[in-house]
Queue: 3 jobs
Job 1
Amino acid sequence: MANPFKEIRDDFSFIKSHTLQPQWYKILKVFLILGYLGAHLFFYGARKTLIFSGLFFILSFLVHMLYRIKTKKFTSSWLDFIVTEKNGQLVYERIGIYYYSLILFNIVLSLIVAHTVF
């Protein structure tokens, strides 16, 4: 079995360096998530925000792992994750509709659970 800390380092390295999303968006989405969580906390309280954010991050981790496994650690194409090789380097096209549909599904499901079940 591989060293889990090495695997996490590899994933963070890939996340920082990939071209699947523009660099500005990688930065902006951190502020979007924090802003949304802050607004959710303000309007709905800590309990619903913790349930929403916990479930959302777990589901998003599962999407990450699904893509990681299916793309053989981000080295081969699968669904909307397109990898080509140019001059000995892996080149990634922008991520597409399947990935963002899964993330939207994660948001909606997390909101439904946080606001109806608990």
Note: The mean pLDDT is 94.
Job 2
Amino acid sequence: MALIKFINPKQKKVRKPMLSREDIIRAVLELEASDKSLAAEAVEGHSPELYRDACEAFATWEIALSYAGVKSLRRAVAADSSDELTAEDVQEMIRYECGKRNSLLCAVVKRRLPRLYVAALKFYRSWENAVISAKIGPDDTLKRLRKRQHYDAQTIVRMLRERHAKGESMVQVEVLRNHYLLGIGATRVFGSWSCALESAEVPQTCPLRSSRAWSKRAVALILRKMASDGVCLDEVAVAVVDRQLHVNALRLFGSWVEACKTIEGELPPVDKP
């Protein structure tokens, strides 16, 4: 009976449903046909919703492009290629490495991607300047990495909560780009980005497509957020608006009523990765 107060007949406007993978691929192909830039920074500007949904559905914009059969970079980046990299290529490649959660330390990049390193020095005089030009923040990221100034679990939880309270994106690839140390540290300390968000009691920006990413705690956090926002938690309504949430709630809890019981009381424990 205590759950009745969360069934709000005056349902608030729900965020526009996320595009399916098929719709995203179709939109990418339409962008390519229209000759608009497919660089991540450009798409984020002229098609922000497409960029957001692509990052959430495919993890990174570059992976979404690969699924659509579109090259993510304007030039080939193979080690044996003789093509010259441009300053824009350098920035895109750095953002790509960041999104793949690869190390941005100078020594590592110099060994793994010598062409990128040489081009970075050519255009930006130093690897650090190149990383800053690619808008990977904060500006002291590489200095802190070299000194191994990593965040502990308590600091990561606090920063995630603060970021969520400000309404900033909680998609890992976007966090990596404007706070690389937080994005990398969360995975290193908690084992996965999902576990980090669950530990901070922060709901996923969008329900993840893979059933492996779901847990009882993840479902509980989403339900609590919906309840606090005044969203109707009627089972039929949720099944229509968010099918993945409904399906996984039934799979993990056995029934919708049992899943809704987690809105009050203690949260389920964090699943070990």
Note: The chain has four domains: 21-67, 87-135, 150-202, 207-268.
Job 3
Amino acid sequence: MTSKPDDGGEILYLYGPDGQPLHGFSDAEIKRIEEVRFKRKLAAAMERWQAGDLTAFSAMVRLFWHRSPEAFPLQLVKMSEKLVALAMAQEEMDARCDFAMHLERWEMVVELRERHEELTQRGRINLERAQADLMAAIKAQNIEERERLFRMLPELRELAAVDYGSSLEQAQAMVAEALSRTGPKNVEPRTIRESYDIIRAAGGRDASYESFLVERQRRGELRRRRGQPLDGSEE
């Protein structure tokens, strides 16, 4: 596991339907968040590469494509993924992709649990600021600004009431919701819980690909003894 870059930045994983970080950050904040997030993912991929994970190469290419699609065309991403597929056994490639997927979900839950108070407070502050601005616009008879703020208030009230992870279960539900917004299919909270549990059992922040394989095998054996499907969930 890699630690967060020591640059004073924070990483926000949760995004709204428009693909932007929640709570309407300024353009400068969005740019800073994206830069820190990029550096963190790049450092994690580099660590995986140094540990012998060839899938980290295509993961890094994809990261640069997301950052600069005009400089890194999608075809280059697909070529790198094909190259990795030719260089690795399918079983290992699938296992490493599984590990990366479970690890990212675990990180999202941990991040949200650590920052739920900050995110909740930000929502309340944004609502209070908008309400104060609305009163000022009414007093100044600024009709255009008043109407703009009136349109914003329902969404701001909704965001101010969101529970961003006061409990582990709520954090897992929020991560599932966020991934469902940005992914090709719905993600259930149970799926996030399974990822969280397997990485926690594999060592949490110290989890490695090898410890993940050991834990995955242990869980598979338990499921077999209990007559559950190998892709089943709970022990």
Note: Residues 19 and 182 are 7 Å apart (CA to CA).
